[in-house]
Amino acid sequence: MIKESIIAIRGQLPPGVKLVAVSKFHPEQAIREAYAAGQRVFGENRPQEFAAKVGALSDLDLEWHFLGHLQTNKLKLVLPYADLVESVDSLHLLDAVQDWGKANGKVLPVLLELHIGAEQTKQGFHEEEVLDILFRAEKYTHIRFCGLMGMASHTDSEADIRADFARIADFKSYLQDLFPELTDFRELSIGMSGDWPLALDYGATIVRIGTAIFGERQY
Ligand SMILES: *Cc1c(COP(=O)(O)O)cnc(C)c1O
Q1: pTM to 2 decimals?
Q2: Is residue 171 within 8 Å of residue 165, measured between CB atoms?
Q3: Residue 166 located in a structural domain
Q4: I need a labelling partner for 58 at 20 to 30 A (CA). Which of 38, 133, 145, 157 fits?
């Protein structure tokens, strides 16, 4: 089931689009099964679980993405191991990641999470905040700005989802034009189990898929 799902999804991804298998709430064994099907990139959203899985699976050559809300008192569970932090969603967190990187001699690759969905509660920056940060990008000596992440509205309306994806895709192109010196700023992480085929129409470079690979999560 895991293997078949990965093969089916991969078969539909254009070359250059990275599949992140979101393994949160699923056991180590599920990740090993995905690995056996050729999957190498995994995503987790809780610091404790992230660190535990990184440790338990250190015999495999995996790429780890962190994609959940990260409190600044949990940085040490995540930053030593994350190949990409996809979910930097506040200035407070960004500054803390910069400070951690400086103290630990590490440059952290991050995506800035843009608030795109209709939900009020959703995390993420507004466009003006992203602009303010990138205008001061050189101040962040220990951050590598790699692009944007976003979660579309949780809805059955394809038009609403497309509108969310169009907005983040347009904003990303605008930023690339405005800040050509940020040569790493090229990732657009959009698309989850319910909407990833649509995300491809808007230039997704990363899709983050959990349920469609591993099945429903047992919370
Ligand atoms: C859980 C999660 C996903 C995967 O969600 P599915 O609907 O199970 O594919 C993707 N992105 C983020 C940020 C998540 O927290």
Answers
A1: 0.97
A2: no
A3: yes
A4: 145
219 belongs to a structural domain: no
Total number of domains constituting the chain? 1
Distance CA 195, CA 64 (A): 22
H/E element, 200: helix 196-201
pLDDT tens, 170-193? Answer: 999 999 999 999 999 999 999 999
> Is the CB of 192 inside a 6 Å radius of any atom of ligand 1?
yes
The response to whether residue 21 sits with its C-beta less than 6 Å from ligand 1 reads: no
Structural domain boundaries, residue 47: 2-214
Q: Is residue 42 part of a domain?
A: yes
Which one of 22, 193, 206 would you pick to mutate in the ligand 1 pocket, going by the greatest count of ligand atoms within 8 A of its CB? 22
What's the 193 CA to ligand 1 centre distance in angstroms? Answer: 7
User: Which residues are bridge partners to 209 per DSSP?
Assistant: 21
pLDDT tens digit string along 48-99? 999 999 999 999 999 999 999 999 999 999 999 999 999 999 999 999 999 9
Identify the CATH number of the domain in which residue 196 sits. Answer: 3.20.20.10
> Which residue's alpha carbon is nearest to atom 7 within ligand 1?
193
Is the CB of 209 inside a 6 Å radius of any atom of ligand 1? yes
